[in-house]
Amino acid sequence: MKKYITTPIYYINDVPHIGHAYTTIAADVLARYYRDKLGNKNVFFLTGTDEHGAKIAEAAKKAGKAPKEFVDALVPKFEVTWKNLDIAYDEFFRTTNPVHEKLVQEVILKLKDKGYLEKRSYEGLYCVGCERYYKPEELVDGKCPDHKLEPVKQKEDNYFLLLTKIAKDFDLEGKIEADEFQILPKTRKNEIISKLKLGLEDVSISRVNVSWGIPFPGDEAQTIYVWVDALLNYYTATKIYNRESFWPADLHIMAKDILWFHGVIWPCICLAIGIDLPKQVFAHGFFTVGGEKMSKTVGNVIDPNIWVKKYGADAVRYYLLTAFLFGEDGDVSEGKLKDKYNNELGNELGNLLNRVISMTKNYLGFSSCKENNEKLAKIKEETKLKIDIKKINSLIEELKFKEALEEIWKIVHLANEFIEQEKPWELNKDQSKKERLEYVLVNLTRAINGINMAISPFLSETSRKIESQLKTLKPEPLFPRIDDGK
Ligand code: MSP
After folding, report:
1. Measured CA distances, 377 to 366, 415, 418, 480 (Å)
2. Ligand 1 — pocket residues by CB below 6 A?
3. pLDDT grade, residue 130 (50/70/90)?
């Protein structure tokens, strides 16, 4: 079995923020989980940047740079951020890759061949921020609901992708309905189906006024619409990186803002050019910061690198995935991150490890994991401290990250309670209770081993630290308290 998992390719001129981090962390957890399960070579985890379009050309001009020079300089911002967050993607995709550009042009020719393209004159209200036309009724006070700017009237002769015809020819609705192309969560699937029932509109997939894009084959005056260019990354990547056997993608993860593109336009393109449909699209929720949407104008955009610097990658990963259910909307703040850092990570997990290692060393006189391992083989298992790995695995496979971590933390709590109940420091005072003391401590080590195995796709650095501390029995704080005074 193989798994091909993607994040969206992010607009390169936005600095990577915690919204992007959220999607990417989720994809990384899945990729790590499946690498353990299926082997490294059977997993392909793709992320990257979306680098064409009017917005980027404008920004490059402002910066006094040629577009390509401009985007080249921005890529490291993403690469560094992902490294800081301990994201282990397999390839980093860029839409300016020349092979991609060529393949996208081939797709356009194929669409034309199959009769799914048509040149039409179009006049509409265009938002450069969104790179799309709006219908008047979609605007809020005459402005784009996202960018709060008045879209400009634009008239063009464009090539249209005949979405209506494709959806009908291939029964897109039926395929979504039957989960042949699965949209998750279910509520999102229902939204897409109701929208489809209201009727589709053909979509313009070329631009006259956007020179920073892939040239439209056969029409020099036009470039290919950025969204078609961008969506195709998922497919062209399999050719560019010699991973053809990974198509169709198993899972595209993103937030609900771009579900229409992934849930309708993308499958229509795949169907029209005759490639298999991706298996699953998961749209998670949007988060706000202090109750407000994150935006440059509000000035509340959070750079994940700053959080990582202060709390470490694993704390940020843990916090974002446990802040609210994956799929729902929620609010995040540094205060809540700090709480989780100090309590769930520091007090609950960190202290558990610390106490168990110290007591094993001091009371049992063990000096390495060897003695622990020997005892582990002999001492009966304390079942209440047993991690339900099957349950956790299926939660991860269902993208229920918060629930999976809570399931793991149940054992963290039980292990801490077990220490309080058994009071090893008292057992240690009484020679006749030596056997019980061994039973308690060896089972606590066993519990930590289980916890460690379960957290590894989420918190891989912590997991490595735990492993090495258990090996040497040298306790060191996993999440040292943060002193705000400094
Ligand atoms: N370039 C397109 C995607 C093309 S994919 C073929 C794009 N890029 S984006 O930079 O705007 O990224 C959008 C994605 O960023 C969302 O779908 C989501 O994954 C993530 N998020 C951005 N802001 C977010 C929140 N406030 N909350 C959660 N996720 C968010 O759209």
Report:
1. 15, 19, 21, 33
2. 8-11, 14, 19-20, 22-23, 50, 230-231, 233, 254-255, 257-258, 286-287, 294
3. confident
